[in-house]
Every structure is written in C-alpha cells, then in structure tokens.
Amino acid sequence: MGPPQPASELNYAHQIRYWRRGLKTYLPNVYTGNDANRMTLALFIVSALDILGDLNSALSKEERQGYIDWVYACQLPEGGFRPWPGSHFGKRRNDENKIWDPAHVPGTFFALLNLVVLGDDLERVKRREILLWLNKLQRPEGSFGETLGEDGSIHGGNDSRFGYMATAIRWILRGDLEGPLDGVPDIDVDAFVKCVCAAESYDGGISEAPFHEAHAGFTSCAIAALFFVDRLPLPRGQASDGRVRGVTDLDKTLHWLASRQTATLEEDDSTDTFDDESDTANTCHDAHSFVRVKGDQTVSMTNTIGSQPKVPFDLTWVGMNGRSNKIADTCYAYWVSAPLAILNQLPSIISPQPIRRYLLDKTQHAYGGFGKVVDDPPDVFHSFLGLMVLAMFGEPGLQNVDAALCITERAKDHLESLPWRKEAIASLLSSTKRNGVNGTEQSS
Question: Prenyltransferase alpha-alpha toroid domain: from which residue to which, for each copy (predicted)?
Fold first, then answer.
C-alpha cells in the first residue's frame, strides 16, 4: 500500500475571504456577461456566507437593510421580480415599454431566497400577485416558462429547471397543500407531475424533454420540484393515495444517480486505454473506470499486474459527472447529491469521503472558492455548489443546509416561522378538511 494520504481540509479562512470579496467589491470583469443574473449571484454570495456562519459578521445592520432594499427595488408593480436592475426604466416605465421589463421566474425565485437568507419578513412581497402570475406561466402540458409576453404568451424553456423554481416559489409563499388560496387558483399539480414523468429516461435519469438524454441537473431539479409539491414516491409498503407521483422507477433512478460517480477527474484521464496492458488500478484512472453503487468494484479494481495486490486507489478521489462518459465537475457533486438527500438516500447510496476529498484536494482553490474542474480558477457558481455539498456531508464548521432550497436550515426555519405563511397554510389545511379531500382539489 502507498503512503497515507494527507488529511483533506476546507480552507475556512480563505473561503470566507473569497466570499467576502464577492459581497463587498465588484466581481471580476469575466462576470460582465452574467450581469443580467445578478440576483442569482447575490443569492450564491449571501447564502455561502450563511453556510460558513459568517453572514452576521460580514454585514452591518445598515448593509443588510441596504441589500434587502435592493432586492425590493427589483420587484415589479404587478408582482414578481426582475433578475437585475438593468431593465428597470424607473419613472419612464409605462404600459408600452413594460414588456421589456417583465417578471422573471429565476429572478423571483432568487429574490425571495435572498430576502429569506437576509432575515426579511417578506411582508413587502406582492405574494398574491406572484401566485396569480405563476398560474399564468404554466403551459397546458404542465411545464412552466420563464416570462409572460405582451399577449400573455409564455416565453422561455419548458424543462425542469423552470418547474423547480416555479414550484419552489409556490412552496415559499403557500407550502405544498393544494387548492385555491384567497381566491387565487392553484397550479395544475397533476399536469406538472405528468410532465416530469414524461421526461424520465429509459435508464432512470430525467432529461429536459421526452426521449432526450438524462442529465443530472434536470434530474435534480425535477426531484426537488416533486418534493415541493409533495409528489415524490411513497415509501415502500405504503398504500397508494391515488395521486399522480413522479419518479416511476425509484430503484432505477437511484442506480443512475449512483453511476454518476467517476474516477475520471481530468481531461487526461479520458484517454481510453480499456483492455490494454496499462489498464489496471495500479497505473491509471480511465474513462471507463466509473464508480458504481457502494460495494461494487470498478473495472480497474478487478485487474492486477502479475501477482500484485489489487489497489483500489481510484477511490481516493471520486468526482461526479452529469452524463455518461463525462469527466467530473464540481457542480455535479451537488446535482447528484441533492436529489439523493431529498430522497433520503444519500448516506446509503454513496460514500461521501472520496467525493469530499475530490472537492477539497482537486477543485478547492488556494485563494478560496472552487473551480469547475481540476486546475480551474474559482467561480461563484461552482464555489457555491461545492460548499453546499460539503455542508450536506456534515463538514465541520459549516451550517446545516436544505438540499432543495440551497439555503441553511436556519434560513428555512426563519421562513417557516413567518406568521403570514403559517396563516396561509392553516387556511389551506382548513379548506382541505372542509371539502373532504386529501389535498387534491384543483381550481381552473
């Protein structure tokens, strides 16, 4: 056996320094092309500092209020949020040009989360207007778009990313109980779930559309969305409640997620030497050396050189990919781990330690943050998701997180404690009991 590997460590001080730079100064010029996603970047920064337990120290009371007011400045008069201030016409906004400044599903999702993480009570949020708008964004087949056009047409994609954010907005504002609230019709939950089921692939993963290749990002978004509408598969042995549910073959989906583990961490690893003389665990990490469900061996683990013992050193570092035959990528450690956590299968399906070592040894940057792949500089997107994974794995020094919302449990608890939200859920529960239905009432 080789020498023991040095302990992998989260460079806590450098991580805080990285995220405080993002909070207090301008982002580097490479982010210029992402200016229209400023609300998203803001959430990654404040939520990362919250995960690190540094948000209260990083923000003065005045700064916190300033950020809250900035989010509200992006709220539209008719409800919903823009994803950045750049489309705001100010006093020149009118009925003719407001079409160029529409409410935006990702903008609204991240705005609400920013307010929650910053400790706002969401009392200034136009909650009723958002729920009305959300209902209009659902297409007849169940999917959700991104914005509404001038004639009420739905613009944007129709994949599970938008379904995830739309159902999360609904969950934030009214919980997962179904039926109209204060005269506002609910979304068509059955249609949405059927839309998700239609995108399930033959191998258990979920794609952006029927008959397309399964992808970890779409799978994660779909499973989180099913969680937000309380339509995940029922526990084994529990009788059906008659409701349409997603993830029609749970075992196959779990196997597909577990198979996203890979020992192919760098571009050089993808050189295919399958079955040649160097194809052993002692010599290489190959593209075919993917890691299966815990307990199974990879191809390279079953080969030896002569009488040398089998050395499973390809399990020292394990990354995750988003599709078959791809190299590891920091973000997919989240897109794979999050659905497993939501399904309560994370500890029983994968071993966290090799993935933790991959993140800390291979993509954690010396200046803080995480890169997309080995040797990449850090970026806000991959740095946040890498931190989320470590928090989900219980990394010492990090706060507990909610895998579906990408915020700390502390922030989620704050949201669930808000009086207006408790009242909305109580009203829905009372209506459900009064009508004698099990949360399945729909209104058109």
Answer: 10-407
**What DSSP string describes 148-209?**
E-TTS-EES--SHHHHHHHHHHHHHHH-S--S-BTTBPPP-HHHHHHHHHHTB-TTS-B-SS
Whether the CB-CB separation of 349 and 340 falls below 8 Å is answered with yes
User: What is the C-alpha separation between 209 and 196, in angstroms, rounded?
Assistant: 9
Q: Are 155 and 211 in contact (CB under 8 A)?
A: no
Residue-wise pLDDT tens for the chain (444 aa)?
455 556 799 999 999 999 999 999 999 999 999 999 999 999 999 999 999 999 999 999 999 999 999 999 999 999 999 999 999 888 899 988 888 999 999 999 999 999 999 999 999 999 999 999 999 999 999 999 999 998 889 999 989 999 999 999 999 999 999 999 999 999 999 999 999 999 999 999 999 999 999 999 999 999 999 999 999 999 888 888 899 999 999 999 999 999 999 998 887 765 544 444 434 433 333 334 334 333 433 333 343 334 444 444 457 899 999 999 899 999 999 999 999 999 999 988 999 999 999 999 999 999 999 999 999 999 999 999 999 999 999 999 999 999 999 999 999 999 999 999 999 999 999 987 777 655 444 433
pTM over 0.85: yes
Contacts 24+ apart (CB under 8 A), 393-397: 393/337, 393/352, 393/355, 393/356, 395/10, 395/356, 397/10, 397/12, 397/52, 397/53
